[in-house]
Amino acid sequence: MRFFTLLILLFSSSLLAQMTVAVSLQPQAWLVQQLGGDRVSVVVMVPPGASAHTYEPKPAQMAQLSKAVLYVACGVEFERIWLDRFRSANKNLTVVQSDAALKKLPMPAHHHGEEPGHAHETGGFIDRLRGWFGHDHRHDDDRADTHVWLSVQGMLLQARAVTQALAQTDAPNAAFYWSNYRALSDKLAALDGEIALKLAPFKGRGFMIFHPAWGYFARDYGLVQLSIELEGKEPKPAELGRLIKTASEHGVKAVFVQPRQASKSAEVIAGAIGAQAVELDPLAADWMAMMREAADKLAKAMGEHTTGR
Ligand code: ZN
Fold first, then answer.
1. Of the four, 67, 145, 279, 308, which is 20 to 30 A from 52 by CA?
2. From ligand 1's centre to the CA of 54, what distance in Å?
């Protein structure tokens, strides 16, 4: 009798067993959850409020990783050193690079003179996907823009790679993951349409931001991202003057900053031009809500422009 109970327990636990999937960033956890539903349990490496660029894993997280069978990497800096360590600490771990097929933009090298994103005038969801293909400079350029999750199209391409990996790792449930993928791509197409419509009146306009995380988003919807930070550093006093000039030329009414990352220069610029400092979170847990909120806040900031462009 006890043997029989044990058999039932073993059988049901294998049916209900969740696959542990580790990811670097919160928005990827959202993605894996969308595709894996209750068949996956997700471990996130970069905690809320930490920088995606300077983060290093804690010992407690290495312990959590030992349960993971899949690691979804997206190309952020710490992965370059740590993925090998994760693999040697956990021999069962398969790493999938969800950004593998993505052509990346360079990080902004100038404070101004940046071109607006080249969104196709008549382009819809599929047209904007084209920006992600072509020659990839990533391997010879350390300064590639790693914020690939801040693009609806970028997320769709990552979703494909993640679905493939989930379906391979858990083959008996492959149909489940692909059906979730199809549902998600419909949601992404609808979200893209909604954002494109909201931002259409502001094509060619600029928004100013401390940390330039929204370059792909700007490219997708034809906006100009004006970065305060340059190569990860606060601007020098002489550059501040130029930034203030750029901000007023673009009629900037809001200076965007990340939550929990105070920036002296963003405050100075906002103060000088009478703009508001507005928080824009690039690493929220609810990715879809975050993208909608970003579109709303950017539309509001650009709608309040007093001068053109
Ligand atoms: Zn960033």
1. 67
2. 10
The number of beta carbons lying within 10 Å of the beta carbon of residue 213 is 25
Q: What angle do CA 289, 210, 146 make, to 5 degrees?
A: 65
How far is ligand 1, taken at its centre, from the CA of residue 9, in Å? 45
Residues 6+ apart with CB under 8 A from 14: none
For residue 225, how far is its CA from the centre of ligand 1 (angstroms)? 13
Side-chain half-sphere exposure of 152, counting CA atoms within 13 A: 28
Q: pLDDT tens for the chain, 309 residues: list them.
A: 566 666 555 555 555 689 999 999 999 999 999 999 999 999 999 988 788 888 989 999 999 999 999 999 999 999 999 999 999 999 999 999 999 989 898 887 655 445 566 555 556 777 778 777 765 544 435 678 999 999 999 999 999 999 999 999 999 999 999 999 999 999 999 999 999 999 999 999 999 999 999 999 999 999 999 999 987 888 988 899 999 999 999 889 899 999 887 788 999 999 999 998 999 999 999 999 999 999 999 999 988 644 444
Q: Are the C-beta atoms of residues 97 and 80 closer than 8 Å to each other?
A: no
Q: 105: CA distance to ligand 1 center in Å?
A: 13
**C-alpha of residue 203 to centroid of ligand 1, in Å:** 23
Alpha carbon 25 to chain centroid distance?
A: 8
Which DSSP letter does residue 307 get?
A: S
Query: What is the whole-number distance in angstroms between the Cα of residue 52 and the centre of ligand 1?
Result: 6
